[in-house]
Structures are given as C-alpha cells and as structure tokens.
Amino acid sequence: ASPGSIKTFKLNDGRDMPGIGLGTWLGFISTNRNTKSDEVENAVKWAIDAGYRHIDTASIYDTEDQVGNAINKKIAEGAVKREDLFVTTKLWNDAHAPYTVLPALRNSLKKLNLDYVDMYLIHWPIAQYLNGTFYDVDYLETWEAMIAVQKKGLAKSIGVSNFNIAMLERLISNSRVKPANLQVEINLNLQQPELLEYCKEQNIVVTGYTPFGSIFPNRARIEAPPPRVDDPKLVDIANKYNKTVPQIVLRYLVELNIIPIPKTITKSRVEQNIDIFDFKLTQEERDLFKSYDKNYRTIEPKMWQESPYYPFEKKNPSLTHDENLITFSNGNILAPKLK
Ligand code: NDP
What we know:
By secondary structure, the protein is α/β, with parallel strands linked by helices.
C-alpha cells in the first residue's frame, strides 16, 4: 500500500496519526522460544518498505532498540524522513511517580536513538514496581508529568492505554490537556462500542491492540469464543474480495474507525496486513462481524486486580500469579511477562 492510500486520523492536538501501525510486542515468554536480536528490526524495515508509517513499541517490550535501528537505517538510506514516521512508545508501570516520567522517556529515546516520539502513552493506569508490588501514585499526577514532557517537545502527542471510561472522564475533568489517543484491546470478540462512542464524543482517537484477538488457534485460549481463521463464513467473505481472513478482520476494524496495530515478524504478513485499503465490506458483512462481539478479553492481567487502579471488571479476586498462566488450545502454557 502506498502511504497516500492509508487513512489518517486528525488528533485533538492538531497532529495526524496514520490509520494502521506495526505492533512490536513479542508476546508472553514461551518456554520454547528464543528472541533473535534482529527479528523486530527486520519487520520494521519491511514495514517501512511496505508503506507503514506508524510503529508501536513500549519500554516493557524490550524492542525499542530494534525499532530505532530499523528507523534510523531507513532514514539514512533515504527511504523515509523522520517527520513522515509516527512512533509510539509507552511509560511502564514502574515509572508513574511524576519525577520518574522524564527519565523514563529519555531512556526510551536513547534506546530508540530518536530526538522525540510522536506519541507517548501511559501504558496502564496501574503503578507497580518490577517485582510486582503496587505503589500509590494516582494517574492524574503521572498525567501532569506527561504534559510536561510534551511541553519539552520530547513527545509530540500524549495519551493513555488501558484506561476505562470512568478513568478517562476523571482524567479529562481534572487536567488541562486531554489525551489525544487511547490504546485499548479491540478485536472481533472485544469491540467495545460504548468506549468507542465515548472517545468519539471526546475527540480521542482510538488505537486497537491485539487486533486478531483469538482468531489464530495458537493464540486462542480454550475458552475463547469463535470465530477462528478457518471459519467458513469468513473464508467466503475473504475469497470474495481476493483477500485473506486476517485482512478482512483488519478491514472491519478500520471501518470501526479505529487504528489497528497488528504485530508480525513475518515478511509476507507485514505486507499482507497493510494491503486492506482497496475494498469495503457490505453492511451485511459488518453485521456478521458485529455478532462476534462477546465482551471477551484476550489481554486480562488478573494478577493486577488488587491494584486500586485496575481498569477492567474483576473476575476472581483471589487469583495468584500462577493461576494467571494461560493455557492455549495447542497445549502451550505461557506466563505473562513481568520482566
Ligand atoms: P496481534 O493481534 O497483532 O497478533 C499477533 C500474532 O498474529 C502473531 O503471532 C503473528 O505471527 C500473527 N499474525 C499477524 N499477522 C498475521 C497474518 N496475516 N496471518 C497469520 N498470522 C498473523 O497481537 P498483539 O498482542 O501482538 O497486538 C498487536 C500489538 O498491540 C502489539 O504487538 C503491541 O504493539 C500492542 N499491544 C499493546 C498492549 C497495551 O497494553 N497497550 C497490549 C497488547 C498489545 P508472526 O509474528 O509470527 O507472523
């Protein structure tokens, strides 16, 4: 896709945000997987060549250095200019104390080897040390420090991630700067219509993470609702447009007016996932996609439920970290990465 054919969103601070991005979280630690040191760097280079202008990373992902290497090499090659790229990174839970926000962003910028990021997000409303203990910082205080780093020009835009409607309302009514962007999980099983409506009213652009949700069997928990990628109805729709099921799923998300940030480190998929701006679903097809919305979360950090700032519905307050291990349909068992 040429960058010109990709939808862009006007943020409430006047800046533009490209309507699709590349995700770079490598996922939960798997017992049978080793991270190669250049797999994300390669993916970001392929992405820029394929027309992506928006890359999503975070300090906790441990991929900022690879994202930065790819971007700086592509800029040096003359393939793209810094001002044409949109780079998002995120403040981790261990740096919510206001005086730690600027050092945390400087650290991210150092790893990225960039002078500024386009979007800096509070990753979660929860303040928590790396050893897992919660500490008491209200996200309203953290937000004031976010405003300060934006004033310094180190983050052109600022926003939040994993905030619920009540938290957004509280943030908006208690501070001078409205978040420009909210990043939350959006996929077929979790379409969040009320949250999207609220953000539309407030002029907050929404980025949708984990856009594929549970469509791939190796990612779907046993209890995850359908559909899977081989669902005959989805395969039919995909064939009709000469696209793949992952592509029509991303297309549906684009038509919800959100910005999907699919992650892949596979070249053909990097190219495939952005090739979704040359067709449009019918109302009937959108209705089918809508019927898969089951308010089901793929990313649900139940071990954080005891935090006063846990953003989601609490399920079982007595869950321990071990009980939060995730069992997948293919038998893989993964533990959430706490670092
Ligand atoms: P995704 O929904 O993007 O799914 C990623 C998985 O799908 C990978 O296993 C990838 O495989 C596979 N895949 C991608 N494209 C295709 C395709 N066309 N066909 C078949 N398989 C495909 O999950 P993520 O959880 O990674 O979410 C995306 C991004 O959102 C993250 O990378 C991160 O940047 C962000 N995020 C933010 C969070 C937050 O708290 N703010 C939480 C979670 C995610 P492979 O790579 O092997 O090709």
